[in-house]
Amino acid sequence: MSACIAAGNTVVHKPAQVSPLTALKFAELATKAGFPPGVINVLTGTGGSIGQALADHPKVRKLGFTGSTPVGKTIMTSCAKSNLKKCSLELGGKSPLIIFKDVDINTVARKTCDAVFFNKGENCIAAGRIFIEESIHDQLIARIVEIASKMVIGPPLDRKTDHGPQNHLAHLKSLEKFVENAVKDGAKVAFGGKRLDRKGLYFYPTVLTHIDDNNFAADEESFGPIMCVSTFKDVDEVIERANRTEYGLAGGVFSKDTNLALRVARRIKAGTIFVNTYQKTDVAAPFGGFKQSGFGKDMGEEALSEYLQTKTVTMEY
């Protein structure tokens, strides 16, 4: 919303139906900060009703959507059919993280857990597939499992908590199904893989190994705390495998060889690449995906152009 407002527009925000409170609190704080009535508006409800109405409305001239790729395609169609409104789409991802053998195991194990388990995996740029160079696979997985097993699982407002509950019950059940399908296709559960036996929508931080390229989990996004691990031997081979997905939102490279890391970063087909870090974004850096992860930028100077119209005036005098 910041780019939209900074460009001089009013905004109608439709949050996800299962998590409206943050948007409503934001609107409340904006009012207290002095925003005039009508600049920031919040509509809660289902995507099929409220979201569809916004996509179809003839007075809406620009629509930005964050969500799944199938819904994004529906919205894009509605934008075209209604009044050909401009749209930007931030959609699904299966972001590859490639880890070379020269890394420090302890440091990279922690960063890899952060790349996958941050916000319980409910994060569009989460590292959806981990490629570990074969010679360090066992050592790195052992350290990752050790870290995952020590994560404190509990209420999100408790400062001691490392790992909170999932967003809603249907999503929790989809994570159980994801693990089940991955195991059917040959994956092995190194840690987790199930919900906790206690009240609440808690799912263990999960590590799946032996994910080959034909496994269900190699292509599908879980949007949850599920680490999907594969191995590799050759640089060109792993880049080709990393780019095989239809998504292109983000990716990462871990290596002490800066030249190697930057060469790989250049060849990964994704809008945001992290080198020796992950999840670090900046409001000044443009953010948006390639391929079926959508188009348009959410941050940086480029985001302003998403909410502006360029006009040419020619005058003779």
From TrEMBL:
<dbReference type="InterPro" id="IPR016160">
    <property type="entry name" value="Ald_DH_CS_CYS"/>
</dbReference>
<dbReference type="InterPro" id="IPR016162">
    <property type="entry name" value="Ald_DH_N"/>
</dbReference>
<dbReference type="GO" id="GO:0016620">
    <property type="term" value="F:oxidoreductase activity, acting on the aldehyde or oxo group of donors, NAD or NADP as acceptor"/>
</dbReference>
<feature type="active site">
    <location>
        <position position="90"/>
    </location>
</feature>
<protein>
    <submittedName>
        <fullName>(pine wood nematode) hypothetical protein</fullName>
    </submittedName>
</protein>
<dbReference type="InterPro" id="IPR029510">
    <property type="entry name" value="Ald_DH_CS_GLU"/>
</dbReference>
<keyword id="KW-0560">Oxidoreductase</keyword>
<dbReference type="Pfam" id="PF00171">
    <property type="entry name" value="Aldedh"/>
</dbReference>
<dbReference type="InterPro" id="IPR016163">
    <property type="entry name" value="Ald_DH_C"/>
</dbReference>
<dbReference type="InterPro" id="IPR015590">
    <property type="entry name" value="Aldehyde_DH_dom"/>
</dbReference>
<comment type="similarity">
    <text>Belongs to the aldehyde dehydrogenase family.</text>
</comment>
<dbReference type="InterPro" id="IPR016161">
    <property type="entry name" value="Ald_DH/histidinol_DH"/>
</dbReference>
<feature type="domain" description="Aldehyde dehydrogenase">
    <location>
        <begin position="3"/>
        <end position="313"/>
    </location>
</feature>
